[in-house]
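Student: I would love a firmer grasp of how sequence relates to backbone shape in proteins. I am handing you a single protein, as its sequence and its fold in token form. I am told such tokens are a discrete way to write the fold. I hope you can help me see how the letters and the tokens relate. Take your time, and here it is.
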Amino acid sequence: MQFAQDIKRLKQLKGTESLQNAWNQWNQNHQSLTETTSLLTDADPGMRGLAEDEYQHLSNTLTDMLKKTFPSLLIPPSETAGLSALMELKSAVGGSESSLFLANLLRMYLRLADAKGWKTVIVSKSDTDEGGVKDAVVEFKGEGSYDDLRWESGVHRVQRVPTTEAQGRVHTSTVAIIVLPLSEEAESGGDSDLFNMEDVKVEVMRARGAGGQHVNKTESAVRLTHIPTGITVSMQDERSQHQNRRRAFQVLRARLMDRKLSQEMDERRATRNSLIRSADRSEKIRTYNYPQDRVTDHRIGRTIANLKSVLEGDALEDFMIDLRRNYEETILENVLVEGDHLSAI
């Protein structure tokens, strides 16, 4: 118990380091500004000119700290910074064209992960005869992967001319994406901080799929039902029941954690009239327009006129940076509004 408390205190102290460093930098620059002020009336024109330049530089630095550095330190540290991500992609409107677009998006995220040094595991994937992907579940393991990918939850729309379209008409298709937080796996034989084993119904059955004696003779598929919430997870892609059971509990835990985070956000919104926005999974969050060679994110109103760069994973990070900045600005606004409210009480 004492060890856990010591760890908590160390984390709290570490969390104040950036604020202390900023305060020390402020005092140092402010002291230098005071010393420079006395030189502005120096009789030597050369010395006075140097003092004026230094005074302007220090003034700009202090102003920048007031406008950017200190406000940014008011933003609470992300509680999900250390979490990995589990991404579910499902083809929606558009039939085979939607599946082809899903394959494009899957490749985009895998390229992004490779560039950022994340490890990826394709948990499950259903290919189509046309070369597309009907649905897929991908695990992204790496520091900050959930905080980066969480903005991808929602409906992605593509506008392009299908290869089977003889008249050259532009078709619109969609893919739905859900990104779930992925923490350390809970042991399938014990309780977790998100669920109790007594609340989980575990069923095993024969896997269904294309051919093979393994499919016909072994009960390797696993289905979990979390009774309190009704969440159901089925897994049959692994070769053994043990592997499918582990994967199923991993996905169940991710969905329950996502539910918990959403509930906490809703509670904060209700108690302080928060403006925090999470990705609305029922709305089209981004449009990939092939004829006009552009990608538009509707949440922040930004358009990148280089569709290939986005699909290659390079410019995708530009969207993520802007979405994170937009989120942090909203958080900061809420902190300031809450502070004004408390001071008025």
Observations:
- The chain is about 45% helix and 20% strand.
- The first strand starts at residue 84 and ends at 91.
- The CA atoms of residues 17 and 131 lie 52 Å apart.
- The chain has three domains: 1-74, 84-185+279-332, 197-264.
